[in-house]
Specification:
Layout lengths: L2 H15 L8 E4 L8 E4 L1 H8 L3 H11 L6 E7 L3 E6 L1 H12 L13 E5 L14 H17 L2 E5 L7 H12 L10 H17 L1 H16 L2 H25 L18 H10 L4 E3 L2 E10 L5 E7 L7 H15 L4 E7 L3 H13 L8 E7 L2 E2 L16 H19 L5 H21 L7 E2 L2 H4 L7 H18 L13 H11 L1 H11 L3 H20 L7 H24 L9
Parallel strand pairs: 5-6, 5-10, 10-11, 12-13
Antiparallel strand pairs: 1-2, 2-4, 3-4, 7-8, 8-9
Length: 572
């Protein structure tokens, strides 16, 4: 049981004993030290329902509150808040138990099977900055959920189907390049632009491209072989980017639009059998009364086009059914741009109406905002083009290398480049993850690479400070008995003890920025502890206790950054 669960149960029991059995207390960490460690709210609402004085009810609650050996002080504040300060011995024992657990006390809940749809680049083109947020937010959530005990299934729903691939294969045949043994990615990028130009300018070519789409969907052997070549080149590029980003997506996680091709006709049949399908101007459509336009007309969810072709909306329905049915997931997360919000609302609504997912399956659109340039517009190159993700990562490492070289010019170049990789990539990821995912944010190199404030370099440097303490200390007992006597020790231990509750919040609300804020607070409290409480200069049991506290801080900081996909360093 976590601290939050323990305190909430005890306060709820005390409210019931005081005559408010239906009260739902809110127990949360206090915002200021003078309010204790936790503040319980709920007395005032209960007092209103009981038509009694809040402070009188609070007095009864405190008298009934069973926190012997857990709290050192319980106080009533204001009109009826209850402030709780945890006992040092209890806090020390809690941290000790958590540090003895490889999952730091977070993995005891009954895990669910969770499918996470993220990254999802369009193949046959290079990944660009627009793919960054989905990729790293999804990766962080997958790591956190798996760490807590959920059975996580990663699904990289790549765009590997549709008109663009008919266009590419038609152009490949036309230019007589079908016999070449390999396609370099740079060539493929240019190849795509040339094919797109032909498609836009030549109606006859566009018709041939559409014909190739039909052949592709129909299983034509030659067209499928050409299509597969495009996929292999693109997937190899994606995998290189994932490896560089430290993202845990593998080839086996790829489940693109093409994977559901054979199921699309069955989707149509099943929707028709359920009485949901309507023919409209030759197309097969579901009209959703839950979504109406300004004129009060039901919105159309198109299932099949007039020419018999399918849309990504159809593939999404098939994927929804596959994930809930075949995979048996009970929670479906879609880490996709916020601008797709209406589509996912309609998808989830139709999926339930059609019986593709049951009432016991949770569906969540994990929406995110846009990365903006300094001009407040979507991030672009100086010429206004799309920024390739590889180029962004190159720039991050270059800037980090210059910074590291300035701070530590005596380090060997290979060492500086290794540090620059961890710092540069970590800075880009953390700058994104530390913002609320639904917010747009300004991409700023100077801020994200700063060693001050809520940044990856600051947290990475905090870990190197801890590592330097351990080097100076030599061998010591990482699990020595913790004895908390100073306020700074208490504050650091309290932060460590709250780690399981923090991860539960991240998992429930799918917001990695909570973990970033926690780690920044952890690093800040460690810094205050280190300034107020001598570690290496202390002696005996005090020295052993403080070194063990440092070890707990290092372990939690490393674990937390690892859950964000950010590397730690022994030196910088």
């Amino acid at each position: 049981m976590t601290l939050h669960e323990l305190l909430s149960c005890r306060v709820a029991a005390a409210l019931a004993a005081a005559g408010a059995p239906d009260a739902a207390p809110v127990v949360q960490p206090s915002s200021k030290p003078e309010f204790g460690d936790y503040q319980a709210n709920g007395v005032m609402g209960a007092a209103k329902a009981l038509k009694t004085n809040p402070r009188e009810l609070a007095t009864k609650v405190v008298a009934a509150l069973q926190l012997d050996g857990i709290a050192s002080k319980i106080e009533i504040a204001g009109p009826g808040f209850i402030n709780i300060t945890l006992a040092d011995d209890f806090l020390a024992d809690t941290v000790t138990r958590q540090q003895a657990d490889v999952q730091l006390g977070t993995g005891r809940h009954a895990g669910d099977k969770v499918v996470i749809d993220y990254s999802s680049p369009n193949l046959a083109k290079e990944m660009h900055v627009g793919h960054l947020r989905s990729t790293i937010i999804g990766d962080a959530l997958a790591r956190v959920l798996a760490f807590r005990g959920d059975q996580v299934v990663r699904q990289n729903h790549v765009g590997d189907w549709g008109t663009q691939f008919g266009m590419l294969t038609a152009y490949l045949v036309e230019t007589e390049q079908a016999g070449s043994e390999a396609l370099a990615l740079d060539d493929l990028e240019g190849f795509y632009r040339a094919a797109k130009q032909r498609f836009d300018e030549d109606a006859a070519f566009a018709d041939r491209a559409r014909d190739y789409v039909v052949k592709l969907q129909g299983g034509d052997v030659r067209v499928r072989a050409l299509w597969q070549r495009f996929l292999e080149v693109s997937l190899a590029h994606c995998e290189a980017v994932y490896e560089r980003l430290g993202v845990q997506l593998q080839r086996d996680d790829v489940m693109g639009e093409s994977a559901y091709n054979d199921d699309l006709p069955r989707v149509v049949v099943d929707l028709r059998a359920a009485g949901l399908l309507t023919e409209d101007a030759g197309a097969q459509v579901v009209f959703l009364d839950e979504f109406k336009n300004k004129e009060g007309e039901a919105q159309a969810y198109i299932i099949q086009k007039q020419d018999g072709g399918y849309l990504y909306s159809t593939s999404d329905l098939a994927a929804l059914r596959y994930r809930a049915g075949k995979l048996g997931a009970r929670r479906l997360l879609y880490v996709v741009d916020a601008r797709q919000g209406l589509h996912f609302q309609q998808l989830f609504t139709l999926g339930r109406k059609a019986g593709f997912i049951g009432a016991d399956v949770a569906t969540e659109h994990v929406a995110f905002g846009t990365m903006m340039g300094e001009d407040g517009k979507p991030f672009k190159t100086r010429s206004g083009g799309t920024v390739k993700l590889v180029e962004l990562l190159d720039e991050a490492e270059r800037r980090a290398f210059d910074l590291v070289s300035e701070k530590n010019p005596d380090l060997a170049e290979e060492k500086r480049r290794s540090i620059a990789r961890a710092v540069g990539i970590g800075a880009v990821k953390y700058a994104d993850l530390s913002k609320h995912r639904t917010s747009d944010y300004i991409f700023d190199w100077n801020t994200m690479l700063s060693f001050e404030g809520n940044t990856a370099p600051y947290l990475q440097y905090a870990y190197t400070r801890l590592a330097s303490i351990f080097r100076a200390a030599g061998s010591f007992d990482h699990h020595a008995k913790l004895t908390l006597t100073e306020p700074a020790e208490h504050a650091l231990a309290l932060q460590l003890a709250q780690f399981p509750d923090l991860l539960a919040q991240v998992a429930a609300e799918t917001c990695p920025h909570f973990l970033c804020a926690y780690l920044y607070q952890l690093a800040t409290r460690f810094s205050r502890f280190y300034e107020a409480c001598p570690v290496l200069k202390s002696e005996g049991e005090t020295r052993a206790s403080r070194l063990a506290l440092c070890a707990a801080a290092a372990n939690t900081l490393k674990t937390g950054l690892g859950l964000l996909g950010i590397a730690v360093l022994e030196e910088m």
